[in-house]
Structure prediction request, 256 residues.
Amino acid sequence: MDYDLIVIGGGPAGYVGAIRAAQLGKKVVCVEMERAGGTCLNWGCIPTKALLKSAEIKQLLGHVADYGLELSGEVKFDFSKIMGRSRTVSDTMAKGIEYLFKSKKVDYVVGKAQIQPDKKVVVTGADGKTQTLTGKAILICTGARAKALPGVKVDGEKVLTSREALAIKTLPKSRNCSSAISRNRASKFSPTPRSKRPRSATRASSSPSQAAKPWRRSICSSPSASRRTSTDCSARASSSNSIAAISRPTTATRLR
Prediction:
């Protein structure tokens, strides 16, 4: 089938570009390997923020007296339900993007795209069947993926990428995280509110050079961390039987 524009990748860049082109009167198709929304919406920023919201509410309930309220009994949490809500939020937003595709007349194809000569794209579906798309222009918005460390195998149990971290059902006893999104997730496992941590735990290096360059503490992101390196992009957060504490991203990057 012939199109004015073939968009490969249905993440924040791809689906926005596809919809905008359709609004300008172009015939557009968006090819996504998994689901509309890409990594950010399905396995990155959005589900992570949903988890942080649960942690934030848990922390607020521990300080109701500060607001002149009273709460009887201990506030408990169900980790599996918290994770379930996170997945529901992502699923709902992904359906919303699929609806936008339909309403804006953007064709949506699920499969793995491979660019061929003469502006052709061969898409292979999950069932192995292929279809060939032809376009006047091709927009590549494939994003990035997590890169395994040399000699460290991702097993989904002890070593996890951002994807596995958002599919666990039980609360880990401890975590050692690298990258911005991973640190955001780690903050929900931290048992100690920032206000009660030792001063040294909430301060970055006292070096003037680091203090003058705050970008050093925030240049890593997941899963595109494979493209970037930084000595300041690591954080550790241990868990107990509580996820009462929440750390903002800027705070998490300061953890030693």
